[in-house]
Model the fold of this input.
Amino acid sequence: MPTAIKTKKASTKQTAKAKVASKPKNKTNYLTTRILEQAANKAFAKAAEQTMKVMGYNVIVQGDWVVKKHQDGTI
Done:
């Protein structure tokens, strides 16, 4: 039969300190505008690339006009 080994339980303060110490100092737990804009720009670029491959054109806005841009660059 296995023998039980007694271990010292960490108190809540010790556990909290260990969690705080293990996090990188520059890591944020919140969503900033800059992070959101970067993620959105990457997603839009990827979606536009995939759409161009599948359909052969993208519908975009240039100035005050909504135009269809084809793979060969014509509008």
Q: What stands out?
A: Residues 33-55 form the longest helix (23 residues). The first strand starts at residue 57 and ends at 62.
